[in-house]
């Protein structure tokens, strides 16, 4: 007799195991396990059965035959290049240095019902340098997405899922403990507009973090291409619609981050990612790179001072001045991102031949040349915090200007001007901004991780 075990990922919280070819009487049902190692337990319960194992992911499915559910688990179709599951002896032992590091960040041990076992060694694993070929079989490199002096980001195919692998070279200046901080923050945050951690592994002096999904652009690159000449009118209109909606999506996501008492501390267009949703004309936006973020136990603890890493152009005045800074610093940085989105929309409108020249004149034209405004600073400081006064003058002009190409953005200017005030106590909270922009949000905004999708192109 042959029994087929199929695993379907129904949604972000449920994996359904479907078992066919087995008479499901009461005695049999009592022996069927409800965990994610169904095939192993079936072999133990029914040693004479020939069990075939099939995995695949689907967006929606209904339960048929017998279904045993478990929490979200990393299940994908087997590939011919993937080694067979290894014994439990390859999992991290309790006394392993990496296990202790993970445990100190509340990342280990992993709940077996929620574990994303991408490696057949668990969600967090160790690989020896001599096992590089084995690792390359599990994670097939597809592209280089970016690199710095200490890290490289690649897209890798794991079974059928395309992941981003961030490999960090650790040393005395940047330790493994510091590298794993980002994992701790992302594990604390489960949101459809935040990258999710699939797993990690260590090899010699490096730590690699596996993230989902892989984006197509960062927001800065996406905005640079927002012209009808490059995209064509139809795609241009789709992207404009997406960007208008992104005001609501980003504000809601930052509000969620703050509700979890996490301060991102480096919100900027390069850390906001955009992905084309395969099989559709739509896009989705994500907040990424929590490498210098901080988590707190209470709201009062989030007010900190002293030196911290930051990106000067998008940082709030109190961050640059090393003064006391709270969650409002993220609101200022988000306002800078909103300003660049609005500027790109204005640039796109002014480049369209059907828009008369008088509608792109005066103050409106200045927003189309935002870089020129920042570069005109008498102290050669092109950061936003150093140019708040001329920016506020610009915002006031845009709010009172009678004729403009994008009348539906008028209220956005007012919100941005309030987010980018000098004094943090005068800024709205992220919750207030999210409330103001609630009508810009779509059904994509949910406080759950995005379900994994198999890559269509291998």
Overall tally of structural domains: 3
- Helical content stands at 25-40%
Q: Provide the low-confidence segments as ranges.
A: 8-16, 20-24, 49-73, 75-84, 353-363
Radius of gyration: 25 Å
Largest sheet: 6 strands, mixed
Global morphology: globular
Strand adjacency order, main sheet: 5-9-10-8-7-6
Mean pLDDT: 80
Structural class: alpha+beta
**CATH architecture identity of the largest domain:** Orthogonal Bundle
The fold-level CATH name of the largest domain is: Transferase(Phosphotransferase), domain 1
Strand content: 15-25%
Name of the top-level CATH class of the largest domain? Mainly Alpha
**At the fourth CATH level, what is the homologous superfamily of the largest domain?**
Transferase(Phosphotransferase) domain 1
Number of helices: 16
Question: Separation of termini?
Answer: 34 Å
Beta strand count? 15
Domain Protein kinase: 139-437
GO cellular component, one term: nucleus
InterPro entries: Kinase-like_dom_sf, Prot_kinase_dom, Ser/Thr_kinase_AS
GO molecular function, one term: protein serine/threonine kinase activity
């Amino acid at each position: 007799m042959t029994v087929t075990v199929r695993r379907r990922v129904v949604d972000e919280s449920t994996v359904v195991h479907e078992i066919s070819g087995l008479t499901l009487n009461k005695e049999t049902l009592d022996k069927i396990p409800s965990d994610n190692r169904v095939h192993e337990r079936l072999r133990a319960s029914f040693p004479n059965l020939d069990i075939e194992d099939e995995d695949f992911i689907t967006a929606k499915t209904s339960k048929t035959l017998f279904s045993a559910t478990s929490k979200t688990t990393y299940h994908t179709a087997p590939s011919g290049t993937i080694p067979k599951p290894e014994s439990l002896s390859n999992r991290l032992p309790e006394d392993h240095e990496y296990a202790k590091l993970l445990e100190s960040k509340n990342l280990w041990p992993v709940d077996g019902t929620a574990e994303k076992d991408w490696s057949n060694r668990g969600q967090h694993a160790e690989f020896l340098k001599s096992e590089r070929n084995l690792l390359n079989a599990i994670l097939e490199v597809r592209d280089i997405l970016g690199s710095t002096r200490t890290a490289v980001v690649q897209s890798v195919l794991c079974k059928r899922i395309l992941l981003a692998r961030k490999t960090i070279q650790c040393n005395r200046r940047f330790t493994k403990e510091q590298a794993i901080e980002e994992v701790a923050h992302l594990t604390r945050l489960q949101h459809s507009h935040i990258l999710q951690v699939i797993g990690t592994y260590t090899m010699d002096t490096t730590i690699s973090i596996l993230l989902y999904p892989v984006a197509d652009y960062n927001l800065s690159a996406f905005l640079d291409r927002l012209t009808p000449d490059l995209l064509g009118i139809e795609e241009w209109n789709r992207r404009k619609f997406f960007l208008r909606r992104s005001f609501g999506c980003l504000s809601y996501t930052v509000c969620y981050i703050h509700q979890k008492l996490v301060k991102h501390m480096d919100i900027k267009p390069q850390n906001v990612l955009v992905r084309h949703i395969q099989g559709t004309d739509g896009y989705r936006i994500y907040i990424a790179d929590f490498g210098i973020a901080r988590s707190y136990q209470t709201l009062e603890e989030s007010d900190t001072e002293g030196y911290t890493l930051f990106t000067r152009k998008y940082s709030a005045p109190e961050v640059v001045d090393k003064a006391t800074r709270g969650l409002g610093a993220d609101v200022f940085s988000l306002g800078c991102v909103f300003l660049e989105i609005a500027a790109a929309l204005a640039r796109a409108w002014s480049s369209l031949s059907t828009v008369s020249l008088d509608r792109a004149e005066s103050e409106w034209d200045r927003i189309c040349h935002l870089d020129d405004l920042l570069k005109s600073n008498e102290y050669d400081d092109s950061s936003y915090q150093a140019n708040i006064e001329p920016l506020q003058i610009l915002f006031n002009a845009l709010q009172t200007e009678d004729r403009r190409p994008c009348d539906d953005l008028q209220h956005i200017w007012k919100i941005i001007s309030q987010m980018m005030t000098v004094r943090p106590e005068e800024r709205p909270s992220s919750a207030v901004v999210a409330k103001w922009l609630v009508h810009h949000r779509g059904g994509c905004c949910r406080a759950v991780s995005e379900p994994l999708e198999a890559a269509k192109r291998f």
